[in-house]
Amino acid sequence: MLAKAVRPADRIRAWLTVIDSAGQAMADLDDAFPQALADAGADPRLLAPLRLRLSRRALLVLGSLPRARREAAEAARLAALAGDRRTELLALSCQARAEALMGHQDAEHTLARALAEPQGPQDQQLACAPDGPGHTRFRMLLADDRLEEARAAGAALVRLAERRGAVPSRILSLRGLAETELRAGRCAPALDLAHRSLRLARDAGVGEGPALRLAALAEASGGGVARALSLAREAVHRAQEDGDLLHLARNLSVLGHARLVGGDPEGAVLALRRVREMERAQGVADPARGRRQGDLAEALVRTGGLDEAREVVESTRAPAIRLGRVGALAVLQRAEAQLTAARGDLDAAAAALRAAAARLRALGHRIEEGRAELALSQVELRRGDIPAARTALDAAAHVFRRARARTWLERVSAELAAVEPEYGAYVRTAAPGSGPGAGPPPAALPPSALPSSGLPSSGLLDALAEMERRVAALVLEGATNREIAARLFISVKTVEATLTRVYRKLGIRSRVDIVRLATRWTG
């Protein structure tokens, strides 16, 4: 094609075809850009799309956000001179994305320029394009902890991409919506969306690396750690093969997260420390991107690297405050509380974890909230406050069960097994008629007593009437008494009376014990 092309415009179109066909593997095109720029000469109409590709290359191959920003800004300027609206909007979107990652104050303003009126038919076609303003806006909403707005924007991008039939846009939109669902603690839809994105990516042969990363992240909370590790390793391998530094750092962060969830803090430190070094070199300054600093600090605490953990927390806090990243600050607070506990101040650690859990709950970050409750239970156990440890574990179990976070439920089950003997001893020796010692501990059920629904089976299940089973099932979903009444078309008083019968028949005292029993034995 290039050999036959004589006119500069024809040659640039051929160069763009060659460059775009490389996808994320742009490291092999180092010789292409100088020749293409020479063919473009000083014509802004020809230079603008090339500068846009150079911006993407700066991200993927060079790992330089400042250079990516400069190239995108130049592409936008040239496109405006040439009257090339499509390239101008894509360039402004790339510029805004680079600025957001850098924590640059102009990111919102640049994106507003891309979304400004008038928006013609061609502009609307770019709404769900992988590098378009729609996806950039979605990412910025997610970073701002505006989860419901991000969810609505992500769902709209999925619908638009499916209507247009654009496979790369469908892959990206499904992936983005999956990440939003995961942050909001909806693991089942997150897993489904992530694997739909991965299947599409594998079938089309495009965007597999990022799709693998999101599938691994979803598996790490809602599926299985072994699958998460396998998918994350494949994602890392693909990024290394492509020479893609941007996605290599992101994929390594998910590998580190999966290792931490799987009980390998040493392996997590190795991966996440490398991510931190790479992102520093790239110029990434926004701590809301992936929250890996919190994971790194936690892994360092577990491995005894307390001084390094302190440095990670302190160096991340400043940009988080400057950018108003409330969610990132709450995750850092959880990690810092674990550091405080490791240094021996258990009272301060417990107070900080309660505060972190409350902040994360208010933001809607359910998995992160459950992790704070789980960490609190460990601190309370060290303080010797067995009832408080059990209360925190019950809270974590409630959050993770409602989120369908299977891997975290397994962690809670293990913690419950460790706490149970001490709690039983506490109950037996506590003063009768007061606190947790007011009655016998909840009945211990054999593992076979709980089926996949999470409700007791065998003789215990037979003891529950149909309405009692339905009410208990909704308790496991986290529904309030009022919500249960509305869904079953009964009164709140009937719900309360039904639950009283359930407690009596199962030998327990509260709705959290229903969750605790199901969590303990189903994993």
Quickly count the helices: 27
Briefly note the structural class of the backbone: mainly alpha
Q: Can you give the mean pLDDT?
A: 83
Number of strands: 0
Uncertain segments are 427-460
The portion of residues forming beta strands comes to under 5%
The coarse overall form would be globular
Please describe the biggest sheet, giving its number of strands, its sense, and whether it closes into a barrel: none
Order of helices and strands: HHHHHHHHHHHHHHHHHHHHHHHHHHH
Computed over alpha carbons, the radius of gyration is 26 Å
Fraction in helix: over 70%
The separation of the N and C termini measures 59 Å
Task: List its salient traits.
mainly alpha
Molecular structure report:
- It is built from 27 helices and no strands.
- The protein has helices at residues 8-21, 32-40, 44-62, 65-82, 85-102, 107-115, 121-125, 133-143, 147-164, 167-183, 187-204, 208-222, 225-242, 245-261, 265-282, 292-302, 306-323, 326-342, 346-363, 366-383, 386-403, 406-429, 458-462, 466-476, 481-488, 492-506, 511-522.
- The longest helix is centred in the last third of the chain and has 24 residues, at 406-429.
- The radius of gyration is 26 Å and the shape is globular.
- Residues 427-460 have low confidence and may be disordered.
